[in-house]
Every structure is written in structure tokens, then in C-alpha cells.
Amino acid sequence: MNRIDRLLAEMTLEEKIGQLSMLAAGFSVTGPVLGGDTTGDVRTGRAGSLLNVYGPEATRRIQRVAVEESRLAIPLLLGFDAVHGHRTVFPLPIGEAAAFDPDLWEETARASAAQAAADGVKLTFAPMIDIARDPRWGRIAESPGEDPLLASLFGEAKIRGFQGEDLHEAGSVAATAKHFVAYGAANAGRDYASTDLSERTLRETYLPPFVAAVDAGVAAVMPAFSDLAGVPLTADERLIGGWLRGEAGFEGVVISDYNAVAELVVHGVAADPAEAAALALRAGVDIDMMSHCYRDGLPEALDRGLVSLPEIERSVRRVLALKERLGLFETPHAADRPQPGTPSPDALRELAREAAVRSIVLLEHRGDVLPLDARPQRIAMVGPLADARAEMLGCWSGAGDSASAVSFFEGLALARPDCDIRLSPGVGIRDGDESGIAAALDLCAGSDVVLLCLGESRDMSGEAASRSDLDLPGIQRRFAEAVLALGKPMIVLLSAGRPLCVPWLAERADALLMTWFLGHEAGNAVADILTGRRSPTGRLPVSWPRTVGQVPLFYAERPTGRPASAEHYTSKYIDGPTAPLYPFGHGLTYGRFRLGAVVAEPADAREGDMLTVTIELTNEGPLAGEETVFLFVRKPVSRVSRARLEMKGFGKLALASGETGRLTLVLPVEALRFLDAALRPAIEHGAYELLVGPSADRARLVSYWIEVGAA
Ligand code: BGC
To answer: Which residue minimizes the CA distance to atom 10 of ligand 1?
Structure first.
């Protein structure tokens, strides 16, 4: 008899349900603390997993209770949100997505996994692969942006990084793809709100990242809090049982979101905890995170015939199988495993700096204000984010310590000791206190260049942080306008977990850099860009609206029968532009790139072929730079109206000043597959337009036509 069969044969019903129950630790100033009688629940086998316990001592202590004091000695599964770092904090996911660099995404996940595992954690609730097209939704900060291919590549890379070759490895943790599915399509951008989508949009846009995650071998999936067309995902048998486990072939563990099983009652689909537990379990949710519904409701649900014992046991098997895959039965104390691959603290800071540099997006650049003059200068740093260490960590600081973050002021002061750099915040992030404005304006007036550091606080994005207005908070706009009126060379650093609607600022700044929340090395990374030690390479993973009224906004819209024009009866706004302030993919570099010839081969392609697209690029600017080139496709005539552009790939090429080079992107004809009128995957034959260029701005794309025929 194998271990799982043997354990199942010995377990009481309470112990079985215990394996399906995840409890949480709380936090005190010194770290995680176990409240209530969690330790007792572990001892009696009523809790099979815990979240938020980390640190070698704390995890060893509680794991010892499980393996030495509980009747069946089953180790605990210990989970933690390493969403953008663990001890070392990397940029917000939306920032790191801007790097368009799967190797980097994998490397930062690998580093987070090593740190989490050294802290006794073997499961993380990441990656979040929700498509986000509405910046009102605060969780856009945690997402890789608006595009399904980008989210798929991001998720795959993160899963490879977290899980490594084998979950048994010391530096690996089980990854959780979340939130399944369409959580980001919340009504009006309000977190946790209802969603309603066509089957086509679900399958074309929201499910592909989960297909990629399952194919990458993700160990766990977390259903979203929200409902889709009336069915809360936590109870969605069609999507969890049917699509995820059936169609996509997922064999891992489904873990509910925090208290989501109990919330089925509030959603209005279950009358009591027993019904809620039965709905979730039957849909395929194996672990109840924190709602106690499985523990309190499943025995009654069993008595009432709402669930069967084999259904409970099926989930117990999955949980035990994951514990086996993680090697917990052999080495329950994950922190005790030799950690050969753990990067050194210096290497981690270096990686955090690299990730932060690659996440920064240069949105505007007029004249030659950047890089900063090499001669010593008087630099004024103003605005509430200029010297704000703790803010730099962003919405999920993991187990990171904000005291060791580097602020923009600290980073630049270190990089340019020859300059006279002075600080005066002027205003707070959200408050209306005007008392500091005069001093900040004085400082700016006496300086050669001004760094204006504006934005949101770190807690204004992330979970439960939706906004109905996307302007700068507090009185920052008034302050910024007063600073701009001085007419000094002006570099704006914008920190936020989402695009902010600041066209007035974009028009007047000499340079505008999107710095998201860049993590521990924020200040050093920004200094690298400002001083020209590095050239900016980040590109927007989301379309950036001018006004909140434009959202949801994304480049892959379907064409309308009445494209916007000067004619009255066309698809547009009568009070402002329809185009975004910045398109998806936008981002400037210190180089000046010209796109030359584009050639795709074979131009007469067959199903099964591999297309090679070669793009010639010249850097005509005086400085070196790295350009990112996107490959989009368009099928102008199809039985189903298709998106005006669909991203199919991207690549990067670094060129010195005056240099010409070639970038080659490979596109399997298979990638042209789409869902036909009956939602069946098909490749339509005929003419396709390939569009290549620096962003999704149609006017800047070079087009190349190919024909696709039968094999
Ligand atoms: C969030 C999840 C997270 C979980 C555990 C929930 O509130 O929605 O993304 O993994 O908490 O911290």
C-alpha cells in the first residue's frame, strides 16, 4: 500500500477534513504569530496547512507540532504570498512585466523561492496572471497587464522560477496561479465585484494564461473571489471541474481564496456553511483557506447527502500528493534542507537593482534633459515620493524590511556625490497640508534641475484599493503646477501601481519616468537611469488612459463598423480623444531607433511552418540603447471580427550609436490559431498582415503581408 492509501485508511473524518483546512497566522511587530488555538488544531490534525507563518524558527516550531505531536505525523503545507519578492522585494508585477524579459521574470521568482524556502515556506500564492484592462482596479498593480500572451509568458516564467526542475529541490516552492478566472474584469473596476463575459472573451483573453500555467506544471490554482455571470468561481463546477481539470488537464491542488468559501453565503448561492462547503468541494476546491466552512460544514454536508466521502477523499489525496511532491514527508522542515543555490545577499541586491532598472519606463523625453549633465549641478528633489523608503516596496512587501530600501534621494546622492542635491517634499501624498510648498518652491528656484517625485502611496493599489478617479492624490497637482511654472528643467518620477491620468503633466515635463514601485533597490535603479549608467528599456504592459472615462482601455479591440473620424456618427468621444495617452508597448530609450526593412519567410506559408520575421534596426541617436520590437498580426477578413492587433511576440536589440542590426522573431503558423464562429480552434487560410514596431500605435507599425494555406 502506498503512503497516501495507508494514511487515508487510518484517517478519521475530522483528520481528512483537517487536510483540507488552511488556517492563518497573524502578524505582530516581530513577525508571524499563531492566534486562537491554531497550534492545538495542528496537534489534533484539524489543520493541514497554514498561511503567513515564515522564518526558520517559527516554521520549525509549528512543523514540529505536526510531525511529532499529531497522531498521523502528517507535515504541514506552509504558504506565503511572495508576489514580488520575499525578503528581497522586487518591482511590482506590473512594473516587472514592463521589462518584457522572461529570463528576468524567472530569475526573480527563483530568488524569491530560495528565500521563501529558507524561511520554511513551500507554497506561494503567486503568480497572479489576471488580465487587467481597467486601472481603477487596484490589483492591476499585481498583474502582468492587459495582454494574454504577455500574461502567459510572465506566468510560465514565474512558475519555472518558483518550482525549479523539481519541487523536491531545496530552493523550490509550489506556485499558485491566481485568480481563476477573469477577476480583473470586475464591474467598474471595483475589487471583488461581479464579472460577466462572453464565452469567446473568456476563452480568447482570460483563460490562455491559465492554459500556459497548467502546461508549465503549476502545482496549485486559486479561484477568484468574484462571480462570473452569477456563478462565484469558488463554486464553479463548469470552470474548475470541467475546464481546468478536464479540458486543461490540471492535476494539482485548488486552494480557495481567503474566506471565499464562507462568502458563497454572502454571494447568495448557499444558505449556510454546509451548503457553501458542499458547493466548493464539489466544484473541485480542495483547500478551504480560512473560512472554517469545510471544518464546520462538511460533516453536516455529508450527513445531509450534499457531498460524498469519496469526494472528500479525492481532495485529501490531492493535498497529500502535493506534500509528497514537495518532499515534506522526508524533510518537513524546509528551512533545514541544504540550500546550495541560494544567492548571496549582494547578488540578490544586484538582481533587485537589475529588475528595477529594466522595469522603469521613460514615457516622455524632450530636449536632452536626460541623462543628467556630467558636470556638477544643483539638483532639487521635491514631491512626497522623493525620499520615501517604505513606499518603494509596493503593495506586497512579502517578508521584506522597508528600512533597507533605497529612496530616490538616497540613490542619487550616492551616484552623484559631486552634485549639490537637496530635498524638500513640499506636500504629502494624500493630505492637504500646504505648509511645505513655499520651501520646496524656493529650493527649486535656486537649482539647475528639478526632480519632481509624485504619485500614489503603496497602499493605494493592490487588494481592495480600487479608485474612481485616476488623478494624482491630495494636492499634488496644485503643487506640481506651481513647480512647473518656475520653468526649470523638470524630470518627473511617477510612482504608482497603475497608470495615472496626468496628460497635463506629460505635456509639460521635460522627462517623465514611470517608476511604479520598484522594490528595495528603487533609488539605485533610478539613479542608474538618471545618470546614464543605464539606458531605459521598459515598455508599458498596459494602454495608458488620458481620462478615467476611457477605461477599460486595451489595444486589442475589435474594429467597429464606424471607426472614429470627423464624421458625427462614428465611434468616439465628443469631449476628448479616443486614443490612449500612451499605447501598449510604449517606452523611450536613450537611443533613437529607425525601423528598416521587415521580411517574413516564407511569405507563402503553410500550416505547420515556422515563420521567421527579420527586422532591420538602426540607432540614429548619439547614445547607445536597447530597442524592443513587437510583432502583431491582423487578419483583415475572417468569419468572426477579430482584434485590430494581436501581439504574437517581441524581441530586443541593443545597438551602439550609429549601429545597424537585425532582430529575428520566430512565429509558428500554429500561433495564428483562433476560435472560429463555433468557438473551435482553427487556422483560417488567406492573407494576414504582420505588423512590427515599437508599440501598439498603428501609425508607427511597419506592415508585411503573408499568405497562409493548407499544409
Ligand atoms: C488575496 C490573495 C492572497 C490571499 C492570501 C487574499 O485576500 O486575494 O491573492 O493570496 O489573500 O494572502
So the answer is: 125
Q: Is the CB of 582 under 6 A from ligand 1?
A: no
Give pLDDT tens digits for 124-155.
999 999 999 999 999 999 999 999 999 999 99
Q: How many domains does the chain fold into?
A: 3
- Of 406, 613, 619, give the one whose Cα is nearest residue 521: 406
Q: Does the Cβ of 630 fall within 6 Å of ligand 1?
A: no
Residues 515 and 602 in one domain: no
State which of 550, 582, 602 marks the end of a domain: 550
Global pTM reads 0.98
Indicate whether 314 and 352 sit together in one domain.
Answer: no
Q: Is the CB of 183 under 6 A from ligand 1?
A: no
240 and 110 in one domain? Answer: yes
- Using CA atoms, how far apart are residues 293 and 277, in angstroms rounded to an integer? 6
Does residue 257 have its Cβ closer than 6 Å to ligand 1?
yes
Quick one: what percent of the chain has pLDDT higher than 70? 98
Domain range enclosing 298: 3-336
Shared domain for 77 and 200, answered yes or no, is yes
Q: Is residue 561 part of a domain?
A: no
The average pLDDT across 583-610 equals 96
Q: Helix or strand or coil: residue 351? A: helix
CA distance 221 to 181: 10
Residue nearest to atom 12 of ligand 1 (CA): 81
Residue nearest to atom 6 of ligand 1 (CA): 258
The whole-number pLDDT of residue 29 equals 59
Q: Could you report the per-residue pLDDT of 203-235, keeping only the tens digit for each? A: 999 999 999 999 999 999 999 999 999 999 999
Residue 579, domain member (yes or no): no
CA distance 121 to 334: 7
When pLDDT is averaged across residues 195-204 and rounded to a whole number, the result is 98
Residue 566 lies in a domain: no
pLDDT at site 651: 98
Residue 392 CA to residue 95 CA, distance in Å, equals: 12
| CATH number (domain holding residue 349) | 3.40.50.1700
Q: Looking at residue 548, what is its pLDDT?
A: 98
Q: For residue 178, give the ligand 1 atom closest to its CA.
A: 9
Cell 470541467 maps to which residue?
242
Residues 619 and 542 grouped into a single domain: no
Burial class (CB in 10 A: 0-12, 13-18, 19+), 266: exposed
If you average pLDDT over every residue of the chain, what do you get? 96
Beta carbons of 517 and 92 less than 8 angstroms apart: yes
Is residue 550 within 8 A of residue 571, CB to CB? The reply is: no
- The answer to whether the CB of 80 is under 6 A from ligand 1 is no
Q: Is residue 607 part of a domain?
A: yes
Q: Are residues 546 and 602 in the same domain?
A: no
CA distances from 609 to 604, 606, 652, 690 (A): 10, 6, 23, 15
Same-domain pairing of 317 and 355: no
The domain boundary, picked from 302, 336, 370, lies at 336
Residues annotated as catalytic (active site), given as ranges: 257
- pLDDT tens, residue by residue, 305-361: 999 999 999 999 999 999 999 999 999 998 887 777 778 989 999 999 999 999 999
What CATH number should be reported for the domain holding residue 634? 2.60.40.10
Residue in the block written with cell 538616497: 410
461 Cβ neighbours under 8 A, 6+ residues apart: 92, 138, 139, 140, 141, 394, 395, 496, 497, 498
Instruction: Provide the CATH number for the domain around residue 115.
Output: 3.20.20.300
Distance CA 245, CA 253 (A): 10
Ligand 1 centroid from CA 257, angstroms: 6
